[in-house]
Amino acid sequence: MDSFIPVLKHTQLFRGLGEGEILALLKCLDAKLRSYGKGEYIFHKGQFVRDIMVLAEGKLHIQKDDYWGNSNIIQTIAPGEMFGEAYAAPNSGAMLNNVIAVEESTVIFLDAKGIFTTCSSACAFHSLVVQNLFFALSEKNRRLVQKLGHMSQRSTREKLMSYLSEESSRQNASTFVIPFNRQQLADFLSVDRSAMSNELRKMREDGLITYEKSRFTLIL
Amino acid sequence: MDSFIPVLKHTQLFRGLGEGEILALLKCLDAKLRSYGKGEYIFHKGQFVRDIMVLAEGKLHIQKDDYWGNSNIIQTIAPGEMFGEAYAAPNSGAMLNNVIAVEESTVIFLDAKGIFTTCSSACAFHSLVVQNLFFALSEKNRRLVQKLGHMSQRSTREKLMSYLSEESSRQNASTFVIPFNRQQLADFLSVDRSAMSNELRKMREDGLITYEKSRFTLIL
DNA sequence: CCTCTTTCGTTGTAAAAACAACATACTTGT
DNA sequence: ACAAGTATGTTGTTTTTACAACGAAAGAGG
Prior knowledge:
Two copies of one chain form a homodimer.
Chain A: H1 5-9, H2 19-28, E1 32-36, E2 41-43, E3 51-57, E4 60-65, E5 71-77, E6 82-83, E7 98-101, E8 105-111, H3 113-116, H4 126-151, H5 156-171, E9 175-177, H6 182-189, H7 193-205, E10 209-212, E11 215-218
Antiparallel strand pairs in A: 1-8, 2-7, 3-6, 3-8, 4-5, 4-7, 9-11, 10-11
The first copy, chain A, binds a DNA duplex through α7.
């Protein structure tokens, strides 16, 4: 566990805290580690969760899968990122999505109720953590709205342009790498993979973009 | 302003606080009132906001409008509900959507930075407000994910079923009234109104639903 | 009560997406 | 290096959606 302190130090949740404070907090929050293999489920839809999780290493997808096998990737989680905060509040109900490891991953579990109750060991930094948590959730919120912005586009091409534009401005470069393969990008945008592949080709023919694998360049 | 205290008492933000405490907080947070006519904009996309707003009366839509005149209703706001919390954090960037009054409405503005800094008048309940804020944001988060669930459905029929099912279970009744007219529902689900109307008829013919205006009944 | 405006349903057509099927390229493990 | 499995691109067909146009119904205001 201690080996992940350097990672934790740079997470949104523990921003502004020293190593000693983090160590104390981990105790307060009854931190637990668990590892997952590629393709393994961290959570199934319908499960009840009262922990807040931080990804220590690897890569996760939060996704909604339907009866017919269609997936929709709600969000990707990179090391240092948090997930499940939206379920930390009491009366949050069951989880609405699946959480899956897309690579070998290690997850840190923190007891959520410890965050809202002042702990015995007099952690004065609790309020800072709550504030950090709030900021993180607020950022996630804005990201969800961004994604809704892509999904609300009517055509596949518009969805792609919306997503690629955002990614370009987020990475502040006209050439950038996206964290998806084709199937995953299609799942993320909720479109058919082959149709999307086709549309990408047309967009390239129309001189809007060039690409190779997951590296895209927006033209003009 | 004082006339809205009873409303505020039952908001998520001020849950658990007495009237006196709310009154003190309103002072702390430099509360301001403003009224809007039907169709008037509360915020335009691109604006910077550092306030948290509570709707005192009326009805609002948070929506994304594109260049070609398509709207996408991200969320509807009812009296007592809060909006803009996702922009309360510093470095939140500009607002991504428009906020529009769909009826005559009154909005309360609260200075966000007052919430995170301890105030001079020693409001001990600040931490409770922060916690309330967190819970509210977390619920909004889950609602956004729900909406993403509808939008990720491939066909109009599936989108409708997804939305109507949720609304039915949320209102805990097989017959229920939705807060949209046809155009608004179409905007909410990001589909064409006439095509949606058509699909609704087919669904009725197929014995899945009945409806009249905004009152729907799920069959079986 | 009448007129003007908005909402809702209906239809036909053109465009787009889903789907299925397959070829090719690329990975991974052995 | 090989084989098996996975990812990507391509194409044709079927289904669905967007769009446009219009008439009927409902509502608002004088």
